[in-house]
Design a protein that fits this description.
The complex is a heterodimer of chains A (113) and B (115). Chain A is an all-beta fold and 113 residues long. Chain A is built from no helices and twelve strands. In chain A, the strands form three sheets. In chain A, strands 2, 5, 6, 10, 11 and 12 form a six-stranded mixed sheet that branches. In chain A, strands 3-9-8-7 form a four-stranded antiparallel sheet, with no helix packed on it. A two-stranded antiparallel sheet of chain A has the order 1-4. The N and C termini of chain A lie far apart (41 Å). In chain B, a hairpin with a 3-residue loop joins β4 and β5. In chain B, the strands form two sheets. In chain B, strands 2, 4, 5, 6, 9, 10 and 11 form a seven-stranded mixed sheet that branches. In chain B, strands 1-3-8-7 form a four-stranded antiparallel sheet, with no helix packed on it. Classes of the chains: A mainly beta (113), B mainly beta (115).
Chain lengths: 113, 115
C-alpha cells in the first residue's frame, strides 16, 4: 500500500541548531513531494515542493529538502532554526496515477529560545 | 485574495444533532477535499471531489456526507455526529486533476467537539 512515514514524531532543538526531518515513502514510481508547516493554531501552509528537476529544492523561510530517489526519501533541512520555527511539519506525497495527497503523521518541532 | 474559507471555526454539539461545516474557495479549483486531523494520526482524507457533482470516499468516510453542487463550495455534513468525530477538520482545494505538483490550499480549520 502507498504510505508516507515520518519517523521523528517530536523534535526539540535549541535556537541555531541544525534541523533534519525525515520523510520516506513506500512506492518506487513517479512521485510529487511536499512539505507543509502548521504553526500553532493555524492552517497548513506549503513550505516547498518537488515534482521534477533539481532534487535539491529550496523553500520559504530558509528551508530546503532533498529528493533521493534511491532511498525513497525527501528529508527537510534547515541549517539554523529559530524559535519561530516551532510548528508541526507534514510531509505529503502524490503517487503516480493518483490525484490523492497522502500525508505523513507529522513531526512536532519545538525550538527553545 | 486567494483563500479557502470554512465555517464555523469552532463548534460544540451533542451526539445525534445534524450539522454542516461549510467550505468555499475563490480560486476556481476543480479538486476539493476534506481532512480530519487527530494527534498522532496526521491528516486523513474523508471525502474528495474532482469537480461539480463528482465526489468520492477518502480513507475515513464513515459518518460523513458531502455534496458538490457548485464549483466553489464543498460542505461536509455529519448526519448524526458521535464523540469519535471530535476532531480538527480542514477543507482544501487545488487546481487540476493531475499529479503535476499542484499545491493544495487549506482552510483555517474547524474544531468540532461532539459531547
Amino acid at each position: 500500500a502507498q504510505s508516507v512515514s515520518q519517523h521523528n514524531h517530536h523534535v526539540i532543538l535549541s535556537e541555531a541548531a541544525s534541523l533534519e526531518l525525515g520523510c520516506n515513502y513506500s512506492y518506487g514510481g513517479t512521485v510529487n513531494l511536499f512539505w507543509y508547516v502548521q504553526y500553532p493554531g493555524q492552517h497548513l501552509q506549503l513550505l516547498l515542493k518537488y515534482f521534477s528537476g533539481d532534487p535539491l529544492v529550496k523553500g520559504i523561510k530558509g528551508f530546503e529538502a532533498e529528493f533521493i530517489k534511491s532511498k525513497f526519501s525527501f528529508n527537510l533541512r534547515k541549517p539554523s532554526v529559530q524559535w519561530s520555527d516551532t510548528a508541526e511539519y507534514f510531509c505529503a506525497v502524490i503517487f503516480s496515477g493518483t490525484y490523492k495527497y497522502i500525508f505523513g503523521t507529522g513531526t512536532r518541532l519545538k525550538v527553545l529560545a | 485574495e486567494a483563500q479557502v474559507t470554512q465555517n464555523p471555526r469552532y463548534l460544540i454539539t451533542v451526539t445525534g444533532k445534524k450539522l454542516t461545516v461549510t467550505c468555499s474557495q475563490n480560486m476556481n479549483h476543480e479538486y476539493m477535499s476534506w481532512y480530519r486531523q487527530d494527534p498522532g494520526l496526521g491528516l486523513r482524507q474523508i471525502y474528495y471531489s474532482m469537480n461539480v457533482e463528482v465526489t468520492d470516499k477518502g480513507d475515513v468516510p464513515e459518518g460523513y456526507k458531502v455534496s458538490r453542487k457548485e464549483k466553489r463550495n464543498f460542505p461536509l455534513i455529519l448526519e448524526s455526529p458521535s464523540p469519535n468525530q471530535t476532531s480538527l477538520y480542514f477543507c482544501a482545494s487545488r487546481s487540476g486533476q493531475g499529479t503535476r505538483g499542484d499545491t493544495q490550499y487549506f482552510g483555517p480549520g474547524t474544531r468540532l467537539t461532539v459531547l
